[in-house]
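Obj: model holo form, ligand = guanosine-5'-triphosphate.
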Amino acid sequence: MQHSRQETLQNNPNLNAKSIQVVERILSKNDLKANEMREKYTQDGLYTINFMSSPGSGKTTLLENLANFEDFRFSVIEGDMQTNRDAERLQKKGVFAEQIATGEACHLEASMVERAYEALKNRGELKNKDYLIIENIGNLVCPASYDLGAALNILLLSVPEGDDKILKYPTIFMCADAVVVSKADMIDYFGFRVSQVQEDMQKLKPDTPIFLTSSKDLHSLEKLKNFIVNKRTQGYFSNHKF
Ligand SMILES: Nc1nc2c(ncn2[C@@H]2O[C@H](COP(=O)(O)OP(=O)(O)OP(=O)(O)O)[C@@H](O)[C@H]2O)c(=O)[nH]1
Ligand SMILES: [Mg+2]
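Output (holo structure tokens):
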């Protein structure tokens, strides 16, 4: 059975009503900006995807590999606390990318994305692109509270993190329009049970598609890429309330 974010928070005995209200007040300002951004992406003909996961689960590697598909034209907004490393990795692959370094913040907010978006746009780096990909800060907690106006929210869970994470971090996995089990080449080494991920996602958000990807096997990315392409063709927009 699917629970709303509010229900998940309310059912948690470790949270009190006060903490829920504070979270919601902060959200409303971000929500307004996210709505603005949603309109901007659409006006500019860009289908936007927000990739979220723990640090190091393979987000940038996945984007580097998506650049191999010539029919998948995208630019990237990179979120990290420090350094331009991820943006530079993508630029080396010929992908236009703008880095946001948040300093101390553990998530991206819509206003940060707006600044990066305008920088890409002013450089002409959104022209002739169909997709804008936002790589969120590696964190399975805070990004779940900040809408960035993306049409699709994709959650990565890498094999070395363990197959039990979905129900431990339910709030973020509830955002997912799709879950990517990344580093699938490591499944046997870690005794990772894909069936556990399927079972837990079924409890949390039934029928969410789950993809297995590996940087060692580029074909494994094709299904994910086709899923994104189809969602765009269908005009799908996430209705998840952050
Ligand atoms: N075995 C294996 N290693 C992978 C795979 N994908 C990524 N890696 C490795 O995992 C490490 C982290 O990958 P990144 O792509 O930087 O992960 P990230 O999620 O972007 O990390 P942050 O931006 O720091 O959150 C790197 O050493 C990658 O080479 C994979 O499919 N299989
Ligand atoms: Mg990265």
